[in-house]
Amino acid sequence: MAIFPFILLKSKSFKKDPEIINHEKIHLRQQLELLVFPFYFLYFFNYLINLFKYKNHDRAYRNIIFEREAYDHETDLNYLKNGHWYGWIGKI
C-alpha cells in the first residue's frame, strides 16, 4: 500500500519483489500528480462507483482507474522513468 510518501508492505519478502515495488511507486506518482489528498478522494469515489456498477469488491477494486494504470504497468520497470505522467487519465 502506498500512502505518500511511504510504501507499506505486508511482508519483508515483498521488498525484494520489483513488480510490487513498481506498482506502489506508480501509486506514489499518482498521488503527487493530484497533490495527494485529491488522489484519495478520487480513488474512493471511483471505487464506490465501481462497486455500484459491478456489485463485487474485487472487480470494483481492480477497475479503479489508478489500479488499472498500476497493474497494467507494474512489470515495466522503466515506466516511471519514461515520463508517463497522468497515465491514469487514459483509464477513465
TrEMBL record:
Statement: the UniProt record of this protein carries the keyword Transmembrane: yes
Superkingdom assignment: Bacteria
Keyword Membrane appears in the UniProt entry: yes
Keywords, comma-separated and alphabetical: Membrane, Transmembrane, Transmembrane helix
Transmembrane segments: 34-52
Protein name per UniProt: DUF4157 domain-containing protein
UniProt lineage: Bacteria, Pseudomonadati, Bacteroidota, Sphingobacteriia, Sphingobacteriales
